Amino acid sequence: MRYAVIGGGPSGLYFALLAKKANPSDEVLVVERNPPDATFGWGVVFSEETLGALRDADYETYTEIGESFARWNAIDIYYHDTMVRSRGHVFTGISRKVLLNILQRRCQALGVRLEFEREVRDVGEFEGADLIVGADGINGLVRRTYGEFFKPQIATHPTKYVWFGSDLPLDAFTFIFRQNDDGLFQVHAYPFDARTCTFIVECPEAAWRNADLDSASEAESIAYCEALFQPELRGRGLMSNRSLWVNFLTLRQESWHHGNVVLLGDAAHTAHFSIGSGTKLAMEDSIALIDALRRHRELGAALNDYEMERQPIVERFQEAALESSSYFEHVSRYAHFDPRQFAFNLLTRSRRITYINLTQRDPELVRTVDSWFAANAAGSPDGAVRLSPPPMFTPLRIGDLTIPNRVVLAAGPGLEAAGRLGAGLVITEFVSVAEEGRITPETPVFDRARQDMLRSAVERVHQAGSRVALQLGHAGRRGSMRPRSQGVDRPLRQGGWRLMAASPAAYTPHSALPKEMTTRDIAHAVSVFAAAGRAAAGCWFDALELNFAHGYLVAGFISPLTNRRTDDYGGSLENRMRFPLEIVDAVRASWERPLLIRISASDWADNGTDLDESVAIAALLRTHGCDLIHAVMGQTVWESRPDYRRLFGVPASDRIRNAASIPTIATGNITTADDVNTILAAGRADLCVFDLPATGTTP
Amino acid sequence: MNIGVGLPTSTSGISGQLLVDWAKRADAGPFSSLGVVDRVAYQNYEPFTALAAAAAVTQRVRLATMVVIAPLRNTAILAKQAASVHALSGGRFTLGVAVGARGEDYAVSGIDSRGRGRRFGEQLEAIRDIWEEGKIGPTPTTGGPQLLVGGSSGEALARMARYSDGYMHGGGPARAFAGAAAKAIAAWSDLGRPGRPKLWGMGYFALGDGNADAGAEYLRHYYAFTGPFAEKIAAGNLTSPGAITDFIRGYEDAGCDELVLFPTTSGVEQVDRLAEVIG
Asked: What ipTM score was computed for the predicted complex, to two decimals?
């Protein structure tokens, strides 16, 4: 077998030495455009897991690498002139140059042919090879040559970043956040030997331009960053190594092999540097490829097997990396957080680490966060609470109301049954303010008889220890449908009623056309909501929730997709919010207890409401007396592009809570206590709707 | 979890007699269902026709399309065909539908593949009404066949939750099924449907010496339209009793209600070999 490896980085060299070791009679050639001692970038990080794989694959290099490693277990977070240290994380780092030298020596000892300073212009130069390995990076020749078979997708991240080195001795993975007049800058720094560290500076493009870094020389960039991080650098300097400001590129490819050509490492895939995984993934690729080649006689089967093994693993890293990079892009949103919550949010940003994982790694930090959370929630002085339950069981105070824990359950028709499950807050099913506002014939109407029934149910829920919110709504054009046991949004064929909406367009292709509401209809609807609000006060409900979501009557006014009006109730956001705000004002006139409002934070459709607009909507609702936003997603229009991934509503809750400064309820398939504690401690919501699908809860 | 077997309507060299024999053996075996796939530009049997034949020679097993490419068919005719197989089988029919992934099937049918998602949604909204209204018969006695929807996009899952009885997954390792099932349940709950969606999964197998290569070859051919992905599907073919039992256990753990294993070679003895494995 003859191998041609293009690219002499860690993955190319590691693959070459493993191939030669597996079969010494094979010919293995590595070509590299740079000289052997030129290396760009500073240090690389590995996990314990990767070290285990390196040990099993080649004990000789593992021993050498192990001797050169820096090991540490802490993460330091510098923020607002404080430093939070989190322990229990295991990292190991090595100088990239030392690593390459170890691998080069091992290659030479085994008889791998290394050709440095050879620029490959055409993959055809390796025609005689049985396998051509593209280990030449994201912009490499191999990937570009066979692009039509690999089908690459490249996403450009919006922030600017630059790699520096520093002689600052660190004993922790270090994050530094520094705000100046130009913007918010952050550092990702980690040691790779006793004297040197990698020092990455990242900032939004606007900050980068404000600081004139777009036209700065390397020396000027260094001077700027040294001045900016002078306190943390403690008199040490930054070192450059072809240090240019760039945008990170995430590369995904449908396939990593074609014919006798295969890709490794950055040539196959990239994942944002903030989860520090590039070299680790690349060297694991090399091991997986060698293993696959040893398992299969046929080359095609081996390459396919390699790809099948590695792609799901890489995809998981890419997803975590995307969460992580998105956190850093928007970190200014959390600038008001207490340092302990800020640290918890940072450490759990990629979703790979949750409350439970972090408790295992660093119980003291989590105890500190819990105690701060409990004291803060109770309005006690900082440090007053030393021992506390996890956030999920910390009461929430809204005005005079105390909700005993942070779990919200959406009740179905059986309010009392839901009230016995231990949730802090139970929200009733959709109760219509009027006969013609029902969704289906089964939808309850908030009339006298219903009020009497609910009053006694509420009393029993209170006895069970929960608080109850009445959900009031009007179905609008989503009304006159069949019971949901038969499907959702299936129009009634008999016994239906007339519908009204912001604009005359049917919800589904076969549902009834609603009447466009006149200003008189609007005034009447406002008074109906107000009357229902007054009646609710007599039913001993602890809170009122107005359903302005999911394409029902009021939601129909809010979204530009469903509001085509040209009068004062349509057009600008201010106009589209006029009817909802009139309702809020009218209800607030008599309802003094907490007011919750449910909104669709995104329409999941082009030209619809998105998270940016929902922040503005939430801020308007807040100024009119809304206490809490219940952020749900979609259903504004019949056809949209939903995304039902785990915790799908949490980003919206996070965004609204921290950009519109209003407490929120998070939704979206939250099914474990661990999720609830993570979301609350990280400041992404104040309450969580717990999904218990088997109980048949309905909104 | 119930286990079904696929009818070999798309493997090579299948005679009508073999399909009928296969269906009889499946009915006599430990299987709860017989599934068929749907393609147009391919050497396979039309799914409703194949299931009508199977209905005539079986007493017990459920008959399922996995899945019919609905937008290729006129909605009234689709509803009528489904109602007919349902009536022929004495109410044993499950209609699995999706938009399909092969442009070629749309091209040879003379149907524009653009906008197929929306048209599919309209079909789903209409089909139950057709069965219930009674104008287009044979009118089912109990609301019509079980209706399941396939597809992996958010749109597909929302349509599934709105209009159908559950989700039909397109195949892959148990881990992939578990991920899709979690999203299906989330969609169901988000749209306010009471209860839980039914969850169906599928896999491919070839048992016995010398059948593994032929099976892999068939899958490469059948899935050629997916490009390099076909190799991965071929590599997922279950070719040993151990692989099948592991696969079944994985699907059961992931909450699957019905797992249908499709043959990748045409020998009728495949039914017996599979029956032996699942006991």
From this structure: 0.93
